[in-house]
Design a protein that fits this description.
With 237 residues, the protein is α+β, with helices and mostly antiparallel strands. It has helices spanning 19-40, 67-71, 76-88, 110-122, 127-140, 175-179; strands spanning 46-53, 58-64, 96-102, 145-152, 160-167, 180-188, 193-201. The chain has a four-stranded antiparallel β-sheet. Strands 1-2-3 form a three-stranded mixed β-sheet. Helix 4 runs antiparallel to helix 5 (127-140). The chain is globular and about 85 Å long. The relative contact order is 0.11.
């Protein structure tokens, strides 16, 4: 009896699928990879992942506040993660590489600040004190605005939601995709699960030399040019 090779057993780069299925498969892969790295590297300040794919090679860039801890001793941990990703997503041998990149401004990264707030709450720090500390650090890092939402059983049996705001924040429009960095985390406390949502309004990078910050101004931004000196023409006789 002849045996056939299923698409799941073939290397990922050798599977021929339609564009619609490819976009869905890439989205599922990104979600699963992000969930894996979130659980594995939360202590190292994991702040996101970027996948750069070419026809023959795939590069996965892991952004973290402590990249040396992601690499591990002599690169041992990054090699273990590479092996796990390669086997899980059926990559061909030596066709995927993982890199660690340091987050330039930790105070403007919503994922890093959500993990920081999660760690403070899990250690027993008061909710209001922890939130104000995170808000102060974010605003001192140059953010235009910040909004924190903490919901769940903070003290008694009655669940409630607490919202902390500071600065300027937009909620609608295309500019939200470029200017607002959002992260959601869950804290497993003894009395129940507490939900954390962090929204950071990023500042406009006028020079365009800072990675991660929006390069285009807000739609309602008005720029006033300097007035030119008026020169009075002298009539020639």
């Amino acid at each position: 009896m002849a045996t056939t090779t299923t698409p799941a057993a073939a290397p990922r780069s050798a599977i021929a699928i339609s564009k619609k299925r490819k976009f869905v498969a890439d989205g599922v892969m990104y979600a699963e990879l992000n969930e894996l790295l979130t659980r594995e590297l939360f202590e190292e300040g994991y702040s996101g992942v970027e996948i750069r794919a070419t026809p023959t090679h795939t590069e996965i860039i892991i952004r973290a506040t402590r990249p040396m801890a992601v690499l591990g001793e002599n690169g041992r941990r990054i090699r273990e993660l590479t092996s796990v990703v390669q086997k899980r997503f059926n990559f061909a041998e030596n066709s995927v590489n993982l890199f660690a990149e340091k987050v330039v401004q930790r105070g403007l990264c919503a994922v890093a600040q959500a993990e920081s707030l999660k760690y403070k709450l899990s250690c027993g720090l008061a909710c209001r004190r922890a939130c104000y500390g995170v808000m102060r650090f974010i605003m001192e890092s140059g953010a235009s605005g910040i909004e924190l939402i903490v919901s769940g059983k903070m003290r008694g049996q009655r669940a409630k939601s607490m919202k902390f705001r500071d600065g300027y924040m937009i909620k609608s429009g295309q500019a939200v995709k470029h200017y607002v960095d959002t992260a959601v985390r869950h804290v497993n406390m003894r009395q129940g699960v507490i939900g954390i949502k962090v929204m950071i309004m990023l500042p406009w990078d006028k020079k365009g030399d800072t990675p991660g910050l929006p390069k285009m101004p807000l739609p309602d931004h008005v720029h006033f040019h300097d007035s030119k000196e008026e020169t009075h023409a002298v009539a020639a006789y």
